[in-house]
Write a structure and sequence with these properties.
Layout lengths: L1 H24 L4 H12 L10 H22 L2 H6 L1 H25 L4 H12 L3 H10 L6 H27 L5 H37 L2 H21 L4 H13 L4 H25 L3 H6 L1 H25 L4 H10 L5 H13 L4 H16 L1 H18 L2 H4 L18 E4 L3 H12 L4 E5 L2 H9 L4 E3 L5 H6 L7 E4 L4 H14 L4 E6 L5 H6 L4 E4 H16 L4 H26 L13 E6 L15 H6 L2 E7 L2 E4 L12 E6 L1 H10 L9
Parallel strand pairs: 1-2, 1-4, 2-3, 4-5, 5-6
Antiparallel strand pairs: 7-10, 8-9, 8-10
Helix pairs in contact: 1-2, 2-12, 3-11, 3-12, 5-6, 5-8, 5-14, 6-8, 6-16, 8-15, 8-16, 9-10, 9-11, 10-11, 14-15, 14-17, 15-18, 16-17, 25-26
Amino acid sequence: MPYEALKDIEILFGLALITVVLFRRLMFPSIIGFLVTGILAGPYALAFIKDTHKVEQMAEIGVVLLLFTIGIELSLKELMRIKHLVLWGGGLQVLVTIMAVTAIGVAFGYPVNQAAFFGFLVALSSTAILMKLLIDSGQADSPHGKMAMGILIFQDLCIVPMMLATPLLAGSGDGIQGILILTAKAVAVVLAAHYGARFLVPWIFKQVVRVRSRELFILTIIFIGLGTAWMTALAGLSLALGAFIAGLAISESEYSHQALSDIIPFREAFMSLFFISVGMLLDPAVVVKHPLLILSLVVTILIIKTLITTGAAMALGVPMRIAIIAAFSLAQIGEFSFVLSQAGVQSGLLTPELYQIFLAASIATMGLTPLCLKYASPVADYFVRLLPHNLTKGKGVLSRHEKPVQMNDHVIIVGYGVNGKNLARVLTTLHIQHIVIDTNPFTVKKEAKKGQHILFGDASKPEVLEQAQIEGAREMVIAISDAAASRTVASLARQLNPSIHIIVRTRYLLEVEPLFKLGVNEVVPEEFETSVEILSRVLRNYLVPQDDIERCVTDIRSDGYEMLRSMSRRHSHAVGISGYLSGAEIATYRIQKGSMLEGTSLRDGVLKNGSGATILTIKRGEELYPNPDPELELSGGDIVLLLGTPEQLAAAAKLLEPGKRAGG
């Protein structure tokens, strides 16, 4: 009855509100709260929902909608961009995990086909849990975050062949003929999805968009998702598989971003419904009956997945520290494994008791994921310190590099993301010597072929920094998305070269002070710079004059960075000159042809009287004039190093422009 269904959903979501709030206060992800909600509300505990058949239907609908939204989020173009991590990293992890679990299963007396199915279940990790944790902690763009993402994408794609292989493992494929029929169906589904993504889906969306109805657009998304799932079910394949393929088809259309933004509000409800329904299927009595078995199974799963994923990552040449952190984050069982386990029960590969034991162990590994992420970095650092550098630095065909050219007075760039790449490009244009350190072996190989001076390795290791010739470097720019690694690199760099100028890019203002304590000279928090850029754009849209905008930005930068400089002075041990320049800045400017300073000397006092700034050094061609003679005449094209407050430097900059006059 509709009344009964509405009552069940209301009970579930009401209980979820209480449970999830409690678990969030305990720093657990919401998904763990949903699983516990399901356990409590299910027919085996408080029995708010008693009909197990209805529970299984809710789980199937939930997983169909969940996989549909995950499919929309995946992009084949993104897969091609990180294809090496996806294919080699993910392929090794999945294949070796299946082989290892199969061998263990056979050793414990299970048939090979059943043991191989156990390998399918263990090989997959949770995209929903891990990506949310990585995004919330700001680690999604870190080296280990990208490594984990590549492996996760491969695992998500593996659900297709695994679902197809499950009936074969169960012996219900009717031999060679059954294999051929199943393969033909799979090929037909893939071809239909490919051509649907290229031609049919864009055409359907184009017709709908012309109507300019958001409701119709959302209805079309759901129609395509559920329709594809229904058609694959008619072909004898999985409903969930069809939904996932439909999501992939939509993801390749030009309307994918709008489709995703419209479906996101539903996704959270779908995801909560799925995990609640999974929890409802668990019988807590199994945990009471087999506590040691479940505990040993959880420990075995965590150890096997961590070791194998670490080995797979290091086989690509990734440094051990990054490989271990990525492996810890992928140690849990994934949501796709629940889909496979239900197919396994239907095919006879899992008995009801084995299914319950698997559910209990899986939910436990999911619950341990936040702890695994928390302790991954300390554990990785411990093993990296314990083992010789040759074993932990990362190596192999993909990570080989040529000996760098001899450098001195150069810049070391740690990280070759957007910030590092832009900086390297400008330094190359200005003929300033620099060397890049990056942990992605594919990036290193690709950029080295282009002539970029780039090293493969973990910059938190002294051997890598020494190879970058840190003793003779003038500056280091740390532009990575891993706050813990940034602190380690900065501390080590300060020890190896006490006079080096260290600039660190970080995400949040909260990360600034710990960096200054380690001896960093300058910290650029993205949070602060983003606020400045937003301010300038808002004022520009209100037609505020550009000089007023620049003055506002200068004031904010002066206040904000004075706060950062005060932190630096508080923790500085007389490193560099900046600690003595309270409220002042040093900047370099070029004297333009036709400016009022051209042809004047320092004794004339034009710059000093017009701005208050002081000339410290003049560069004319290759000649340097530190503490210049007052009689030296300034020329157009001279580069001057000025000392002054931000306001004085802004006034001086105007005097250096063609045709400007003091105060004008």
